[in-house]
Amino acid sequence: MSKNLLEQLREFTVVVADTGDIRAIEKFKPQDATTNPSLITAAAQMPEYQEIVNQTLLQAQKDAGRGASQKDVAALAFDRLAVSFGLKILQIIPGRVSTEVDARLSYDTEATVAKARDLIAQYKAAGISRDRVLIKIAATWEGIRAAEILEKEGIHCNLTLLFGLHQAIACAEAGVTLISPFVGRILDWYKKETGRDSYPSAEDPGVLSVTTIYNYYKKFGYKTEVMGASFRNIGEIIELAGCDLLTISPALLGELKATIGDLPRKLEPSKAATSDIEKIPMDKATFDKMHAEDRMAHDKLDEGIKGFTKALETLETLLAEKLARLDGKSTLSHATKDIFHVYDLDGDGFITREEWMGTDAVFDALDVNKDGKITPEEMGAGLGAVIQMVEVAK
């Protein structure tokens, strides 16, 4: 009997689950797993994870001390919650979990280093070796410099929101453990820019970008691992079979598992070693120049940081609302209004998928009637569902 595509992919690529949903990780049994604020926000709204959320939030409130505002407690709880989910995930997978540094620190090297050290300390206190954790940092110049410092301390990093070759080269020269070039978001940009509805998988701009990075790394012997991320369809995954790692959503993992057929390896170190590629020396001036000239990378890095920041702000607001409910001071209408205005960029009373800029999982959870727009009422219902869950813990 023929193997399914997921089984074949695992023969030459490490499969990573791009989710905070522990059920999905248990189902697909990936080697590694990665999370971000949007994914944790989605998971935190599921009833089965409320015990984790509530315990983490109440402990953060205790640790913050008397007089701490709900907002401050919620901010403290985010890091704790990311680690709490990471610990649960590490009980299931044999490999590593990626835990993200606050996206609002993306242009602050010192603050990123401090936050990463704190996250590693939390894992250590729970008995987890730093070899099982990747600190996820945005691939800004400042973020890459932070990763360079951390790697020298034995803290391994996953550089995310990576769209351009200049970012990849800078990461490799900094000795970063792993990079996550974004395939689907690159495709999104080119579709919008060109007006095309689709690209053949072999011509997909995101696929071509990751292929270029992979070949560059193997040609010049860099040890940094390449993990393709942000896929829109299994065609992209098929074209990148052989990449060091691929982080894939549960929906696409399911599609791969359900598909029978041959999966040839597309990326090979031996082929890359004989390719005709010119080495590019990288310093800040070169990085800044290439970043300014690569409009796609410039736009998507900025958009990605804003999107992760908004997802984090949403999660913090949800956590603050839980605290308010526990204290008998619910402010749901104010929370809904504040979050809605953050995302409704054009002020038309709707949040579109493009305005959202976070992950599809959270948008889909809030878009109750599935019309591609989130109304204030739907936003309120989404927050309200979380508040109702708190009743169980009271």
Write up what this structure looks like.
- One of its GO terms (molecular function) is transaldolase activity.
- The active site is at residue 136.
- Transaldolase is important for the balance of metabolites in the pentose-phosphate pathway.
- The termini are far apart.
- The chain has 19 helices and ten strands.
- With 394 residues, the chain is α/β, with parallel strands linked by helices.
- The model is unreliable at 383-394 (pLDDT under 50).
- Helix 8 (165-173) links the parallel strand 5 and strand 6 (178-181).
Summary?
It is found in: Cytoplasm. The active site is at 136 (schiff-base intermediate with substrate). By secondary structure, the chain is an alpha/beta fold.
Keywords:
394 residues; TIM Barrel; Recoverin, domain 1; 8-stranded parallel β-barrel; 19 helices; transaldolase activity; calcium ion binding; Transaldolase; schiff base; EC 2.2.1.2
**CATH homologous superfamily classification of the largest domain:** Aldolase class I
The computed structural class is alpha/beta
Report mean pLDDT, rounded to a whole number: 86
Q: What is the CATH class of the largest domain?
A: Alpha Beta
Looking at the overall shape, the CATH architecture of the largest domain is Alpha-Beta Barrel
Shape: globular
Distance between the termini: 53 Å
State the order of secondary-structure elements, H for helix, E for strand.
Answer: HEHEHHHEHEHEHEHHEHEHHHHHEHHEH
Record field, number of beta strands: 10
Q: What is the count of DSSP helices, taking H or I runs of 4+ residues?
A: 19
How many discrete structural domains? 2
